[in-house]
Amino acid sequence: MFGDMMNMMGKLKETQKKVEETKKRLDSVLVDETSSDNKLKVTLTANRTIKSVEIDDELLEDKEQLKDYLILTLNKAIEKATKINEAELAATAKEGMPNIPGMDMFK
Questions:
Q1: Where is the signal peptide (predicted)?
Q2: Does the first or last residue of the chain, that is N or C, have fewer Cβ atoms within 10 Å of its Cβ?
Q3: What confidence tens digit (pLDDT) does each residue in 46-81 have?
């Protein structure tokens, strides 16, 4: 039994390491989102770090319109990045879960 527990602990540590590696890799996965009229484009990582924002000069003339565009486009980009992030981390965690009796609901 003690050997099984040590084996499970080793498997959990290995999975934790893989999750951390996945998080680092997600820093290089870029997500682009563009407004419907292409006046605003944002790029962020799958870890939801903003990398760039491109703004059409026309939007710079209307502060309120620019705010609206930023809110809509950033929220869409964050939603996309979150879905990628969660799917990747869930797959990594699921792959490395040890076989613990009664915990098969996660598989």
A1: none
A2: N
A3: 999 999 999 999 999 999 999 999 999 999 999 999
* Domain residue ranges of the chain, discontinuous segments joined by +: 2-98
List of long-range contacts for 93-101, beta carbons under 8 Å, 24+ apart: 93/15, 93/19, 95/15, 95/18, 96/11, 96/12, 96/14, 96/15, 96/18, 96/19, 97/11, 97/15, 98/7, 98/8, 98/11, 98/12, 100/8
